[in-house]
Amino acid sequence: MANQSATLSCAELSDVFYALADPTRRAIVGLLGRGPASVSALAAPFAMALPSFMKHLSVLERSGVIRSNKVGRVRTCALEPQALTQAQRWIAEQRATWDARTERMAHFVETLHQEELTRAPRPPRRR
User: Fold this and answer.
1) Mutual orientation of helices 23-32 and 10-20 as an angle, nearest 10°?
2) Domains of the chain by residue range
3) 39, 43, 66, 113: which could join 53 in a potential S-S bond, CB 3.0 to 4.6 Å?
């Protein structure tokens, strides 16, 4: 089993997916993908009041997707890749499970098809 400090709990993973469920928060994550940015720089592209924008940042920070640091009057935000890596790992595990199930289903259907072909009555031969 993976090291507990490197693995998000089920509740923490749920928090990450909740944070990423909102289009505004996904856009913020996209902006932070370019590098750390101040709150004012992050808020600029969004047509909403700063208190509303800060609520989005709060959700992202509580979920562990971002961290913020205040120096003087400037609060800077940055991505926390560990949370996103764990979410990506969970998605990859789910995909692998479903890919394997799909492959088994395709094999099963092909086997049934081949059995039907071998059992099908053949048309009489012409003489």
Assistant:
1) 90
2) 4-82
3) 43
